[in-house]
Amino acid sequence: MSKILDIPLHVSYIQNLDKKKDFGYHLTEHLRLNGVYWGLTALFIMSREDALDRAEMIHYVKRCWDEEAAGTFGAHPGHDGHILATLSAIQIMAMQDALDEVDTDRVVQFLLSLIRPDGAVAGDSFGETDTRFSYILIQCLTLLGRMDVLDRDIHRLAREAILENIRGSMNFDGGFGTEPGAESHGGQVWVCVAALALLDRLDVVDRDLLGAWLSERQLPNGGLNGRPEKLEDVCYSWWDVAALSILGRLHWINRDKLIAFIIGAQDLEGGGIADRPGDWVDVFHTVFGLAGLSLVGYPGLEDIDPLYCMPAKVIRRMGIEKGYTALSRMSST
Amino acid sequence: MTPADALGALLGDDERASGSELDIFSVHNFEPGSVYRTKARMHGVKRTRVTPQAAEAKRLKDQAKIEAYVALQTEVMQRKQAKEYTPEALKRTSDLLDLNPEYYTVWNYRRHILLRGLFPSCAPAEIVNLLAADLRLTTAYLQIHPKVYWIWNHRMWCLENVPLGPGPDASDEPGSSAAATTGKEGREGWRNEFWKTELRMLEAMLDADPRNFHAWGYRRYVVRSLPASFTPKRTPQDELRYTQKKIEANFSNFSAWHLRTKLLGGLWEEMDPGEVKAAKDAEFELVTQALWTDPNDQSGWLYHRWLIGAAPPEDVLRREVKNIRELHETEPDSNWCMNALAHHCTLLSTMAASDEGEKLRLEARGLYERLEVVDADRKERYRDMAQRTLS
Ligand SMILES: [Zn+2]
After folding, report:
1. Which segments does the entry list as coiled coil (chain B) (predicted)?
2. Which of A141, A260, A278, B26 has its CA 20 to 30 A from that of B259?
3. Ligand 1 center to residue A285 CA distance, Å?
4. Does residue B51 fall inside a structural domain?
5. How many domains are there within chain B?
6. Does residue B89 form part of some domain?
7. Do B153 and A128 touch (CB under 8 A)?
8. How far is the CA of A128 from the centre of ligand 1 (A)?
């Protein structure tokens, strides 16, 4: 098993994602915009953001705009607007420095329409709520430079209500669930911790308690799981590890073992990273594996910001960076 | 009856999802930026070597399937564009969802067909039939895709639209909450039937996968929203018994332990201090059983930590420190045991007189030093924690 990340192979894997139009490709149309975000972010981490055509990408994002149903972005042209697709669209446009081509007012209006009186945030007008959506709303508003709308007019209580809903989703183990009452889950922990960090309210979190819980997600094989007594999975190399980074507890896990686990999950023939060694790869686990590697200082990768899961240089350019602690980058030699 | 049989029993045979492709196309159960993974392979499916020739052969073989799928998708999207809210359109959304139950736009369209096209001209009993059919459909999908958010969402939407009745006032608009306030049993007959089905379905889902957090979440919703006249009444004690059953079946079911913390937290607020103490002692007994059964399972330790809480009575803390010391002697290599003991010793040191306090902090530091060696992956954490006992 190779000890090295095969960057050129992963770049070409991402470049070719759109080329083999098998049955699976058609079945995943409802994820296409998210897939573009995953691919572009992965390329940024590998310093190859030029590997996909910028103009074409921006054009595609704009075609995902759903004028009629929601006034926001859907996952693919013709698909309904949803907060999940909206975040991917805004993140792509931010990374491509093209946010001026987004109808910010309409998106903000859509986002505000999703806030429930109890501070829960819905994904669309049908109303399913989840702390993921709270985080997405806050990240979108931050990227758009419009967090001030949460302090204004009829929404002036929204910031506090959203905060209270997130706080209400916190459990005795220090972690967070999908809603008040739900079990702690590594993915939900990341979104809630990142949301609190963006709200400058990390004081809500017991860093030692949650840091310990997160560090216990690492299994003897180096991979991390999302909940007690579950299997490891490469994507938790992002959820859990990014949360640890935001909490300043990233040194509480074994970096070398995590690196070996992610590296071992590469497909060295076709490129890409799988959920665990030997499984089929996908762009989702590819980006989160790379992002985890970047955060723990794997050599030769670009810095990633754990609050946004976006390149740190983009966040710096936009002037919206907050605190976190990544591990220092190892030298390539 | 196996869980799968129980689920099957809830289905009409014709309602089972068709299409063998479904089992290789799975969603990821979590992702904030966008929920699912973009690949047509299930989590944990082993990679096999595929030559370009073999891949091309498969692509050609799949060509007809792809063409049929794309044609169906195009047709459904065109009908949606044309705002066609007819029974035929509904049927076509089923055909498409059979192949791809994650197509959220199609779920949205389906709900619009029902709300805008079919319900307005339906008698309440017909609405009930339509919703029951959608529940059967989603049951079939969940059997294959138990972690797809969109399917669970649609189920919840169905419940929210069950009309009042059968009965004289059955013409009330769907989703009206009037019944809850009038409490007239007859008007909630349909709702009671639906909720009963949900509880049965959930039992089967959680038997099949006792850690499925979608199912636990949906269960919280179903229990929270039971019709006012639902019998037998479901009390927090019933839910508690359910968690006990799950825990006894498998001590490492942390989902059940977690729910217990939520239920007991609420119940104890309504008890007098003596009752609370007795109830907590019973919990300590239950969790002690789990800890001695498998001291390396995290679930019991997390629950024990919750029971101890931030400010336990000193006598309880002393008792637990003593118990865990005993377990530590029997199981000297259990990390979680050492962790718990170190934590509780540190906590107790804040209550004890200064001599004893210093001894307890020393004991905690000793444990953290040992942990640095036996659980080296987390050695930095133990170093930090040992440092904290000095301040
Ligand atoms: Zn995963």
Report:
1. none
2. B26
3. 6
4. yes
5. 1
6. yes
7. yes
8. 22
